[in-house]
Design goal:
Elements (H helix, E strand, L loop, with lengths): L21 H10 L2 H4 L4 H9 L3 E4 L2 E7 L5 E8 L8 H7 L5 E6 L5 H6 L3 E7 L4 E7 L1
Parallel strand pairs: 3-4
Antiparallel strand pairs: 1-2, 2-3, 4-6, 5-6
Helix pairs in contact: 1-3
């Protein structure tokens, strides 16, 4: 597809995880953190992997979707606690094209992360269980 970038499964902070099990490793990290993500079905990770919209490493993962008009929506981003504040999540985000949209629970301390990366607060949405702040980087 013209205008759509393909991504590799390598990032600056992690070794490549090989084979078709890459998406399963991201799924396992998400499952261990259901209090953050809720339940995410396996096909969501598999499909993102097949579309080139999943970064996975031993330190964390980022799953997103890039629309044909170029807007990227981050679905989940996760870094294991022992690797936080080391630039892992920032390296994931820098590999994505702008504009980027992200939603974060209103009471989450992760909102400081989006502010730090110069995302602008676009609004508040009602989620299924809680209010979500909508962040955009243009």
């Amino acid at each position: 597809m013209e205008g759509r970038r393909r991504h590799s499964y390598r990032n600056a902070n992690d070794n490549v995880l090989g084979g078709a099990t890459i998406w399963k490793q991201a799924k396992n990290m998400a499952d261990k953190n259901k209090e953050i993500f809720g339940f995410i079905p396996s096909p969501a990770f598999r499909d993102s992997y097949e579309q080139g919209e999943l970064f996975v490493g031993r330190k964390g993962f980022c799953r997103w979707h890039q629309r044909l008009d170029g807007q990227t929506t981050i679905y989940e981003i996760y870094v294991k606690p022992q690797y936080r504040r080391q630039g892992v999540a920032t390296s994931f985000i820098r590999k994505l094209g702008e504009p980027i949209l992200a939603k974060c629970p209103a009471k989450s301390t992760a909102n400081r992360f989006w502010q730090k990366l110069n995302f602008m607060l676009r609004g508040v949405e009602r989620g299924k269980k809680r209010k979500l702040l909508v962040w955009v980087l243009d």
